[in-house]
Design a protein that fits this description.
This protein is α/β, with parallel strands linked by helices. It is built from 11 helices and 10 strands.
């Protein structure tokens, strides 16, 4: 298996530079087709203007969004023109409430979606929506990074036997096959489970049969949160990539109470490969 189609979403001019450091080198190294969606945001809110101004406001808002999308499209085309990759750049005009639907639909046909960290200070308010739309609506793996990941040599797989973790592991098989080592990290494995005698054994065998070099690592949660334990292990082992299942709890619960996915998106210092 390989990443034949790489998708990324651009919503401002800073994203062009990020794309050239992330999605572009990834597509080049994997001989992938790079698809770029340039988003123009029509922020016109229906029902908040007096009747005589409504059509004028709508027209003006739509025109600005079209111009924004086309400007980003032109800039992205120019940045990719001589880079030796197959690519296609499309302009899309959406409203804040529909951007998730558009990203979900496009992500269904991508092998991987590459996006910058959504909670970075420079990101827009709809950046988390784009990530979640690709994960939930598109069912695509999402690589969160702000730099070229190259060929990761040391990978950590956060393993808890969940369906989300299985999905992430399957999507990351090409990375595991080329890595020098993969830590299958299990934090406080349950004492009463079918796999308690050999925690991580099944997933380790699967990775090994795909050419990986896995080692099962069991860690005790001595820190307040699972995300803190994951971060500590990633830093201590100088890992290049963290693979994990995304949103084992509901998005609402993670937004209100926090969760491993939300916290890793906020604090991870290494690229994340997420899947749901």
């Amino acid at each position: 298996m390989r990443f034949a189609t790489v998708l990324t979403v651009i919503s401002n001019h800073q994203d062009i530079e990020i794309m050239t450091k992330t999605a572009l080198p990834f597509a080049r190294s994997h001989c992938s087709h790079l698809e770029v969606i340039c988003v123009g945001m029509d922020a016109t809110q229906p029902g908040v203007y007096f009747a005589g101004a409504t059509s004028l406001v709508y027209d003006d808002g739509r025109l600005q969004a079209v111009e924004q999308a086309q400007a980003l499209q032109s800039e992205a085309n120019e940045a990719l023109q001589t880079q030796g990759v197959l690519f296609d750049v499309q302009a899309a005009v959406v409203q804040p409430g529909t951007i998730g639907d558009m990203v979900a639909e496009r992500s269904q046909f991508a092998d991987i979606v590459i996006l910058p960290p959504p909670y970075a200070p420079s990101r827009t308010a709809h950046a988390p929506t784009i990530v979640e739309a690709a994960l939930f609506g598109g069912r695509a793996p999402v690589l969160i990074t702000s730099d070229d990941i190259g060929q990761p040599e040391r990978i950590v797989l956060a393993w808890n036997q969940s369906r989300e973790a299985v999905a992430a592991a399957r999507h990351a098989l090409p990375f595991f096959a080329s890595a020098k080592r993969t830590d299958v990290l299990i934090v406080d494995p349950p004492r009463h489970s079918a796999a308690q005698g050999d925690p991580g054994g099944n997933i380790a065998r699967m990775l090994a049969r795909h050419g990986g070099n896995p080692s099962v690592v069991i860690d005790v949660q001595t820190l307040p949160r699972v995300s803190d334990t994951l971060t500590r292990h990633v830093v201590d082992t100088e890992a290049d990539l963290l693979v994990m299942g995304a949103y084992g709890h509901s998005r609402l619960r993670e937004a209100v109470l926090g969760g491993a996915t939300r916290r890793m998106l906020e604090q991870s210092e290494v690229p994340l490969l997420l899947a749901h």
